[in-house]
């Protein structure tokens, strides 16, 4: 399937782009080059290749959760502009 200048004009219209004739020609050639490359990739024999979501194996590198003591509440509330019942009090954002 080849991209035509009419295809480029249609997409440009949908995107509300005002393209010059030279830009239309350039984009048509570039998009056809991309499709040609994709067709070349389709020629590869991938029958014995296992599908992957990434090119390399991904490992989770986060540490295990460890329970630790929290800061004392009086130190936590030192910088609070306003506090009520051991909680931060903030201005209402809804009426």
Automatic annotation (TrEMBL):
Q: Which UniProt keywords apply?
A: ATP-binding, Ligase, Nucleotide-binding, Protein biosynthesis
* EC assignment: 6.3.5.-
The record's section on SUPFAM superfamilies has: Glu-tRNAGln amidotransferase C subunit
Keyword ATP-binding in record: yes
Q: Which domain of life is it from?
A: Bacteria
Keyword RNA-binding listed: no
Q: Enumerate the PANTHER family for this protein.
A: GLUTAMYL-TRNA(GLN) AMIDOTRANSFERASE SUBUNIT C, MITOCHONDRIAL (PTHR15004:SF0)
Cross-referenced HAMAP family: GatC
Q: Tell me, how does this one assemble?
A: Heterotrimer of A, B and C subunits.
Q: Which NCBIfam families match?
A: gatC
Family per record = Belongs to the GatC family.
Query: What is the name of the protein in this document?
Result: Aspartyl/glutamyl-tRNA(Asn/Gln) amidotransferase subunit C
Gene designation per UniProt: gatC
């Amino acid at each position: 399937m080849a991209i035509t200048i009419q295809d480029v004009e249609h997409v440009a219209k949908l995107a509300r782009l005002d393209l010059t004739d030279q830009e239309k020609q350039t984009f048509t050639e570039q998009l056809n080059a991309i499709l040609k490359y994709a067709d070349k990739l389709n020629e590869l024999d991938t029958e014995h290749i296992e599908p992957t979501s990434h090119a390399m194996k991904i490992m989770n590198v986060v540490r295990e959760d460890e329970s630790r003591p929290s800061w004392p509440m009086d130190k936590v509330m030192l910088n609070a502009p306003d506090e009520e019942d051991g909680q931060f009090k903030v201005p209402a954002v809804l009426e």
